[in-house]
């Protein structure tokens, strides 16, 4: 469970999140808002990539300010741009990379890599150079590499923004089948089908928080779309 208490965040003298307090306990939480409204900063707070200027963020009782490493092991993070996440030359090597610093045996790593290839439809790409993959394949690899580490939670920051429709649908399917609770920042309303709760940010404030139909109607009105 994520608990965000009276959080403010500034980059330099610019305040990008203010007065945010919220507890996230649902399985599927989405975060929407205009560009620059603070969504990505909020997502990064959840695994300690960003530590709040004031206020506290805890994950299962661990404070991101003190327990960053443990929290990053618990909370997988998928970036918008998979190129930021893929670090090894081939698909299989990239899947193994995140597992190598976790004290697992080689046999265990190999087994998890094979499972990740299978689960994410990447078997045929096993020994392909990662840089030659399509955008959708790269994002599937980035997600598979995060999932291979068996995180307790997964945070996605606009995972489909750079993808075509077909790849978006594949990612939506992967997300829908996840057992872990997820928090997803997205503009993509298709991706948010079946979500339990939607948070709406505007200029750094949490301005709506509720079931998808209510929050999304609020968001569309805020955007001047209806
Ligand atoms: P969103 O995801 O809703 O687009 P962000 O959290 O990415 O919002 O950004 C909120 C504001 O903070 C934007 O004005 C952005 O330019 C600024 N910002 C984001 N990251 C940084 C950073 N590392 N340094 C300085 N300003 C940043």
Automatic annotation (TrEMBL):
Record keywords, A-Z: ATP-binding, Nucleotide-binding, Transport
GO cellular component, one term: ATP-binding cassette (ABC) transporter complex
GO MF entries: ATP binding; ATP hydrolysis activity; ATPase-coupled transmembrane transporter activity
Top-rank lineage group of the source organism: Bacteria
Domain named ABC transporter: residues: 2-225
SMART domains on file: AAA
Database matches in InterPro entries: AAA+_ATPase, ABC_transporter-like_ATP-bd, ABC_transporter-like_CS, ABC_transpr_CbiO/EcfA_su, ECF_ABC_transporter_ATP-bd, P-loop_NTPase
Entry similarity comment: Belongs to the ABC transporter superfamily.
The protein, known as: ABC transporter ATP-binding protein
Organism listed in the record: Streptomyces pilosus
Biological classification of the source: Bacteria, Bacillati, Actinomycetota, Actinomycetes, Kitasatosporales
């Amino acid at each position: 469970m994520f608990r965000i208490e009276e959080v403010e965040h500034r980059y330099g003298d610019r305040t990008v999140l203010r007065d945010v307090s919220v507890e996230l306990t649902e399985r599927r939480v989405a975060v929407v808002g205009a560009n620059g409204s603070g969504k990505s900063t909020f997502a990064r707070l959840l695994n300690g990539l960003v530590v709040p200027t004031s206020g506290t963020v805890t994950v299962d009782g661990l404070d991101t300010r003190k327990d960053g490493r443990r929290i990053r092991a618990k909370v997988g993070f998928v970036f918008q741009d998979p190129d930021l996440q893929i670090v090894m030359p081939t698909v299989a090597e990239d899947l193994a990379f995140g597992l190598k610093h976790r004290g697992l045996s080689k046999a265990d790593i190999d087994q998890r890599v094979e499972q990740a290839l299978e689960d994410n439809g990447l078997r045929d790409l096993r020994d392909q150079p990662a840089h030659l993959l399509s955008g959708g394949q790269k994002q599937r690899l980035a997600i598979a590499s995060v999932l291979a580490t068996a995180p307790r939670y997964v945070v996605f920051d606009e995972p489909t923004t750079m993808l075509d429709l077909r790849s978006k649908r594949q990612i939506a399917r992967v997300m829908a089948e996840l057992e872990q609770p997820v928090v997803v920042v997205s503009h993509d309303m298709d991706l948010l089908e079946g979500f339990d709760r939607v948070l709406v940010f505007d200029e750094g404030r949490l301005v709506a928080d509720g079931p998808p139909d209510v929050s999304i109607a609020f968001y569309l009105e805020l955007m001047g779309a209806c």
